[in-house]
Amino acid sequence: MSFVEYSDFIQDGDVAIVYLGHDSMMPVKVQKGAQTQTRYGVIRHSTDLIGQRYGSKVTCSKGGWVHVLHPTPELWTVTLPHRTQILYTTDIATITMMLELKPGSVVCESGTGSGSLSHAILRTIAPTGHLHTVEFHQQRAEKAAEEFKEHRVDHLVTVRNQDVCKDGFGVTGVADAVFLDIPSPWEAVQRTCEALADQGFEEISTVEVLLRVHDVRNVSLPLPDFGPDPSSQTESDAAAAEKAPPNHASVTIKTTTPPREIPGHTGYLTFATKPRT
Amino acid sequence: MADNGDDDAQYRIKGGDYVVLKRGDIFKAVQIQPKKKVIFEKQWFFLDNAVDHLYSTTFEIVSGGVLQPKKLKDAESSTDTKEAGTDNRNIVDDGKSQKLTRDDIETLKEQGLKGQEIIQQLIDNSSTFKDKTEYAQDKYIKKKKKKYENTVTILKPSCRILAMMYHGREPGKICHLRYDTLAQMLTLANIHAGSKVLVFETCAGLVLGAVMERMGGYGSVIQMYPGGGPVRAGVESFGFPAHFHDMLHEFPICHVNALLAGTLDTTAKEPSADSKQSTVAEEKEKQNQPEAEQQGSPEEQNMETNSGADDLEKEQKEKRKEAKAQEKKVKLEEKRKKLAAAAALLEGRNADGLVIASRFHPCPVLMGLLKFLAPSRPFVVYSQYKEPLIECYTKLKEQGGTISLRLTDTWLRHYQVLPNRTHPLLLMSGGGGYVLSGTTVAMDRSKSAGSQRAEEPAPKRLKLTDTEG
């Protein structure tokens, strides 16, 4: 297992994702002899996980069951422990394409935060690229480095605990792409675009990407009863009319509905390209 | 990493390169060929001068269709305090404020005036320019620039650029797949180097190319194709290095059922004496012509021997016919080998990802191809329309074997960012297509039809007292 390469069987030391149901998942560090509590009962790592195929169904002690999945950056994004506000897959996907990330890319990122974007970048630039990520908060920097190691991607990343504004990324002249997560967006976007233009960047664009989710539903729509139709043939016998079965009282349609609440705004993404001179 | 002149090579335009021409928001993919006339945005020019320049260089098109690198920011927006008004209450839009006529402008163009100079002429001859607000003046200049500048930028192709190009130029060719939707698909399918990905698309090869770019030549991509042959025109535009094509396989969907049933035979045929010749051809593929001639000789000997020049011509004709038949055999053998190779990759049913984006009804495509995926692997299906994906969702629920099913689409909104003028531009709602994504799990044999556990929470009932008054 690694976050940049699939494997088929769960091994001791892996990080696996336990899928309990819709929108309910959690990461699990697989360890011989360890146990994990879930609402369906206990999962015993040695018997239930180690040696099992990823994707298997695992029956827990109370009789309920879960599935165990191979980790991916997308699954990590929705299960990782938050230390900061994170970027979600919708923005991450847009960033990945707009920065033209691919195997071999060298990327500079500030700040590392909880590592949501970092993991996605690592997956895309492996096996020959490198990520230089900067985090000014010491504990967060350490936690990120720890996770990268656990997830077997540490060879692709360098975490630096420093202030990017003062000390930069620690490297120069190497990056194919740079990602900056900056606070105070309402002022920052404006100043950023101006600064980029001044520095000779081209194709400057600011976008916002919103995800719309469609929940598939069977919806039953009742039909109105306007009373018996007088122009119909069998009306002479009132009794017969009463006995006649009513038309279907409702119609079922298969459609989608939006969830109760939808995220309206996550952030502004500003992209630009510096032509090589 | 030292930045020396040698590293530069990968950033320089070379003859034969596939590039993308850009002006404003308009893109066009072309190949650099010597002395070839290229038409872009109603202008024609030659790309020869671009060779050896760096990518992303902007050129001016001068007379004769020759490209000249544009000097960096020559007298751009000089912020001298221009005369400007405060609002438009007195500006009457009667179409008469520009004193230069169309013919005048044409004359200026013919005189060889640069775009910048023409724009200055337009400003000088506009009766209302000085009354416009600064912002209106800015907007006016930007608009004229768009119209009269004759520059073109040459870009290195990438998924981002090609996806924007196709969506802008020929959306019908790519089932109206918008580039942000493509971005979502590539990430949701966890496309990365070293995996084995199945792709079924009718998007001119754009989706295939995008997948290949994200795999960087590592791993394998199997293009499942309908009909006679795989369509890959779009892949060329990416300008991948030759070795990327080594990881690309193809498999015709008309053989999928046979493959799944285990009845697909991809071994070499053994009909008659011909087979000997074909196997010989197999081994000696490299030696084309001499081999063909040698093969021809037994036939030659069998022919009736007449005398004269006619005879010689007849022999030569026969030789050519033989050579062609031999070529055909060699090609068929190659095709068989490729089919066998693709089948070998598929029959393990352990692919790592599945990407579907086509004009075909997605449901049967998905149900058919899902079988090739290993458990705990992602799949994404794109459709221009929502309903076919609702069907897919329903079928998948009935069948089991998948989790985390999500039907989504994205809205992409651009912003204009200018001092005191920042606001959203047009909202591209809909028109980008829909995506169904999910993850495979081990198929549960013991499970009865229908899920044991409701995947999504039942829609909540609103109490009357809770509704907004």
UniProtKB/TrEMBL annotation, chain A:
The keyword Ribonucleoprotein does not apply. This is tRNA (adenine(58)-N(1))-methyltransferase catalytic subunit TRMT61A. Residues 223-277 are annotated as: Disordered. One of its GO terms (biological process) is tRNA methylation. Its main location: nucleus. One of its GO terms (cellular component) is nucleus. Belongs to the class I-like SAM-binding methyltransferase superfamily. TRM61 family.
UniProtKB/TrEMBL annotation, chain B:
Residues 72-96, 268-331, 445-469 are annotated as: Disordered. GO terms for biological process: tRNA methylation. Signal peptide: none annotated. Residues 314-331, 453-469 have a biased composition (Basic and acidic residues). GO terms for cellular component: nucleus; tRNA (m1A) methyltransferase complex. The keyword Transferase applies. The keyword Transferase applies. It comes from the Eukaryota. InterPro entries: TRM6. GO terms for molecular function: methyltransferase activity. It is found in: Nucleus. Keywords: Methyltransferase, Nucleus, Transferase, tRNA processing. Its main location: nucleus. Residues 289-308 have a biased composition (Polar residues). Belongs to the TRM6/GCD10 family. Substrate-binding subunit of tRNA (adenine-N1-)-methyltransferase, which catalyzes the formation of N1-methyladenine at position 58 (m1A58) in initiator methionyl-tRNA. Heterotetramer. This is tRNA (adenine(58)-N(1))-methyltransferase non-catalytic subunit TRM6. The lineage of its organism: Eukaryota, Metazoa, Chordata, Craniata, Vertebrata.
